[in-house]
Amino acid sequence: MSNLKLSVLDQSPVHDNQPESHGLFTTVELAKACDEVGYHRYWVAEHHDTPGYASPCPEMMVSNVAHATKRIRVGSGGVMLPHYASFKVAETFKMLEAFHPGRIDVGVGRAPGGNPISSGAISSPRQTIPPEYYPSQTQDLIGYLKNGLPSDHPFCNATVVPKDVAAPPVWMLGSSDGSAEMAGVLGAGFVLALFIGTHDRPPEIIQRYRNAFQTGGSLGKPEAIIAVASICADSKEEAEFIAASHTYWKVQAFRHGTRDALFSPEVVMDKKKQLSLSDQAYYDETLATMVTGTPEQCQSRLEKIADLYKVDELMIVNVTHSFAPRIESYKKLAAQFNLNN
């Protein structure tokens, strides 16, 4: 029996050509199912004005998911901190912690989470906070949550309420080594997103995080999670067919800057034939980064990833055109890993 903890990162995709708001309700439905079958965490993402994705407000989704579930930890994956004041983020998540003590995580990132126009609109009339402030923003967030800013901080006397609840842990998300040592120095958790891009992410990234870890921040010891895309089905061929929707979306988004709604796998099979040879190569490269196959095949590859990075928790990302194979994929993985026992 595997000792791996499995968690979920939900990007709130819009399924089955439904209206965008429908994706918000399928997030809650999926969260309830994942709570029942034994997943450890359920995190929700932030996407602004992004076709195919329904939620720009992870804090709203955290609240709804936590209210709809019983046991699972719930968090953001993540709040894109350069858009916001750390003090306000701390207030929001302290409130969530008050309603759901011991179940809330604060995941933060520095990507825009949308196109430049939407990013500008979020910040207007001020400018978006430059990315070089991200480390100090995260440090401030940790301090605000603990009501423990240094005495020489200009806002050391600003108090985040409610004061009588614990500070939820802060996690930093990264798709390369850029945030790893930073997370360690700040005493935060670290999530390495293998599902973003196809570039090499050597296991030394996690070791550098652990080596850099300093106590006194958000966590008492270094904690790392690997986030990976995975689709589990009755056969490898079926899983790759289901994965076609997200794979094609990534080709268009990352190669051409085009963000469309998710096409069905049947439509993608036709569209793939029309791609250039270099785009087809990128499609195949992207698909290869996903863990696809039968429950046994997925378990074997996921356990190898966990062993390579020396982590005891994986966060599964799963984006599909239709909702039914997506929820079924999570259920198959949970059963294969025997999560409820």
How many domains comprise the coordinates?
Answer: 1
- The CATH topology label is TIM Barrel
CATH class descriptor name: Alpha Beta
Shape: globular
How much is the radius of gyration in Å? 19 Å
What's the total helix number? Answer: 12
Describe the structure.
With 341 residues, the protein is an alpha/beta fold. It has a single domain, classed as TIM Barrel (Alpha-Beta Barrel). It is 44% helix and 14% strand. The protein contains twelve helices and ten strands. It has helices at 22-37, 58-68, 86-99, 116-123, 134-146, 180-186, 204-212, 236-256, 265-273, 277-289, 295-309, 323-337, and strands at residues 5-10, 41-44, 73-76, 79-80, 104-109, 170-174, 189-193, 224-232, 291-293, 313-317. It has an eight-stranded parallel β-barrel with strand order 1-2-3-5-6-7-8-10, surrounded by nine helices. Strand 6 (170-174), helix 6 (180-186) and strand 7 form a beta-alpha-beta unit. The longest helix has 21 residues, at 236-256. The N and C termini lie close together (9 Å). The mean pLDDT is 96.
Quick structural overview:
This protein has 341 residues and is an alpha/beta fold. The protein has twelve helices and ten strands. It has helices spanning 22-37, 58-68, 86-99, 116-123, 134-146, 180-186, 204-212, 236-256, 265-273, 277-289, 295-309, 323-337, and strands at residues 5-10, 41-44, 73-76, 79-80, 104-109, 170-174, 189-193, 224-232, 291-293, 313-317.
Blueprint (SSEs and pairs):
Elements lengths: L4 E6 L11 H16 L3 E4 L13 H11 L4 E4 L2 E2 L5 H14 L4 E6 L6 H8 L10 H13 L23 E5 L5 H7 L2 E5 L10 H9 L11 E9 L3 H21 L8 H9 L3 H13 L1 E3 L1 H15 L3 E5 L5 H15 L4
